[in-house]
Amino acid sequence: MIEIAIKKHVRYLFGIAILVFILNKFYLRPWVLKNELPEFFQIIVLSIPNLIEAIVGTLISIGVLFQLRQYIGMEVGIFNDKIVYLAAVSIAGLYVISQEFKFHNLGGNNVYDPYDVYASIIGLILTLGLVQAFGFIKERKTNIANS
Known about the structure:
The chain is mostly helical.
């Protein structure tokens, strides 16, 4: 199977999202809560994990679906990139939103907060917009002489 070439901006987004999650968990959130900053800042630092979960979940789902598409051998016309993006956002959205409403507890000890739902939705929409606008995989160059 040919390796899927993921665009550089997608790899950067993934890495930055993980870095923001770690910095928020170990530094920013404890500092904001310890210093009792205004509620706005507390909402932000408490909802960042949901935003990151939606972004990372969508990116991983897109990658898995592209691999699946390649493995199955579906032609682009049947299962094009936009369908992959929408399916991935749907899968990630189903996971992150259902977790907030306690349909499952796969992500750990979860407390319902409407701001977490908003952060998840923002992450899903943001990621969908970015991959729709800039793509996810590099276009393969085809040799015209072999076509």
